[in-house]
Amino acid sequence: MWAYRENRKQARAVYRVLTKTYPDIRCELDFKTPLQLMIATVLSAQCTDKRVNTVTPALFKRYKNVKALAKADLSDIERLVFQTGFYHAKARHIKGLATKILTDFNGEVPQTIEELVTLPGVGRKTANVVLGHAFDIPGITVDTHFGRLARRFGWTDETDPVKVEHIVGELIPQLEWTNLSQRMIWHGRRICHSRKPACAVCPLSKLCPSYGMGEMDVEKASLLVKTDKDFR
Hints:
Elements: H1 2-21, H2 34-43, H3 49-62, H4 66-71, H5 74-81, H6 87-104, H7 113-116, H8 124-134, H9 144-152, H10 161-169, H11 177-190, H12 218-224
């Protein structure tokens, strides 16, 4: 119990610093509707948000709603999403999820994780993105950045995303889950990189048990830091 309390105390201290460091967070995928966000998130697998944002305008202009997507020719969807990679599978997922939403959910994107994960191509990560950013329903989005940081912060040793989601959910208040996810992802993209984190300029240096594993020269670390313009 003592270890849990200390872990929760450290986790919440980390979150306070992340909140101060990234006060104006947002989803970096461009969307106007829950359906658009879901599709953009499906397309973001093994692809950057920046690239997805260059592809989705044409897709959403051509197919404005779930009915249009359900009736779309698969080869046309493939053509429109080609640049995001794995376009055969992603196109099948998009057409499939649109069809299922139309037939099983009266054309409306469902608002529970249990229902969302029944859609083709939608796992817990995508479901929590949609819930949090389209419906303001708190959810923890465990992508590669979130999982990596959770382990570096000492919150868990788990690599299974579902286990990470549940463990971290016990450390941070539920109302903050979506914001925590976005801030963790931002920090992972901007400073706490996979191969070489910019430790020397990290605002979490006093709280992170992994501090020192990355670049410790301030000048060199500063060159590793990415900014918003790198993702837009």
